[in-house]
Amino acid sequence: MKLTDEEQAMYAGDRGVAVQRAMDLLVRYGEALGAESLVDTNNVCGTVGATMPFLRDYSAKHGGFDAVFSEFNLDSADVIEIPKVKVYSSHLQQGLDPEHAERQNVHSDVVKIYRAGEAYTGKLGIQPLNTCAPYQVGNVPVKGEHCAWMESSAVIYINSVLGARTNAEGRESAGAAMLTGKIPYWGFHLEENRGGTHLIELDIDVRTVADWGLLGYYIGEIVQDRIPVINGLQHVPNMPKLKHFGAAAASSGGVEMYHVIGQTPEAPTLAAAFRGQRPLETIRYGAAERRLAYERVNTTGKDTQVDFVMLGCPHYSMEQIWEVCQLLEGQRLSGNTQLWIFTPKATKQMADQAGYTKIIEDAGGFLMTDTCSSVGRVMPKGTRVAAVDSAKQAHYLPAIMGVQAWFGTTAECIQAAVTGRWTGALA
């Protein structure tokens, strides 16, 4: 790998031990990927600290949060004093909501560790956004900007909708990028790797958030880690629709980028989306494919009595919270069903001011932050059957938590929360 003079100085240890270990990790990582150089980044989203049980134990045994960062962000068995981050860095979702820890069945001792971790990341200069959707609360990279982001649903969103450039980084490479402002120059950082591979021709209207989730789930299974190009759109999608589409495609497959003709910034035309190349395959998406996607995402749903409705994967936007309140205001939840909605902390503050949190709480639900049921493994005790409006959550929640999951529209989920029963069906 070719390093600049500044990179050589960091690699040699002239900028401190932590930076040296970070550069060593990035060079080894880049060489394994075939990268010939590093690229500058001033926007990193990752995770540090010790909210998960194993990491909490490791922290206690090996000397605190510096030990965790050293081992799990820098691949160093030596405990290194970690300096402030060099570039703008944001923290992704955590393992719990400290304000609802008791309801989430999280012990108070864990909350103390969480608070200590917040102080630690603050000392490092990492922004405590604590969300899987940083682009909803102020971290909005621009077209062509090189980033180093973790979190599959966030990676696919900024690559595709914003035109920023990132690969799906891990905890290690993101942590190293925070300290160096560097990331290997490969994959989606390179213009030649951002062209479409598969053409998706829409034979039906894709209108609702649920429609977009089903489309993403179907496409992800088909194209896996390639780049789909969607053509034939009849309505302009908003942010929640594209967010749920990308999250679903990244879950059922490994999609990190897509194009929508006439909508996403690198796809004004078919020729531009494919960079002048021919698609490897043309896939038609109609009623039969939509039905197949619906059946697959609902494969674990059996019992119609719903114990738990979970909304907010990826984290809910203000618009989605508003929609829930339109559906929920003046109603009460079933005594047998709980409703938890997950959102970024900054969005919850706005929802508090707008009165939306009160509407949700008056109905018997809760607006929570910082985590979700799959990441934090937090659910009401005794949950057997859940209802979600996220294809991503329907994909992961049964495997992680051992529950049945129904996928449907937001309206169907709210109906399930109020009645305690699942009555959703594909329209």
Automatic annotation (TrEMBL):
Task: Indicate the transmembrane segments per the record.
Answer: none
Q: Which UniProt keywords apply?
A: Iron, Lyase
- Stretches assigned to the Phosphomevalonate dehydratase large subunit-like domain: 1-415
Q: Which Pfam families match?
A: AcnX
Respond yes or no to whether keyword Lyase is given for this record: yes
Please give the InterPro entries that the UniProt record associates with this protein: PMDh-L-like_dom (IPR007506)
Name the Gene Ontology molecular function terms of this record. Answer: lyase activity
Per its UniProt record, what PANTHER family does this chain match? DUF521 DOMAIN PROTEIN (AFU_ORTHOLOGUE AFUA_6G00490)
Q: What name goes with this protein?
A: DUF521 domain-containing protein
Q: Which organism is it from?
A: Glaciimonas soli
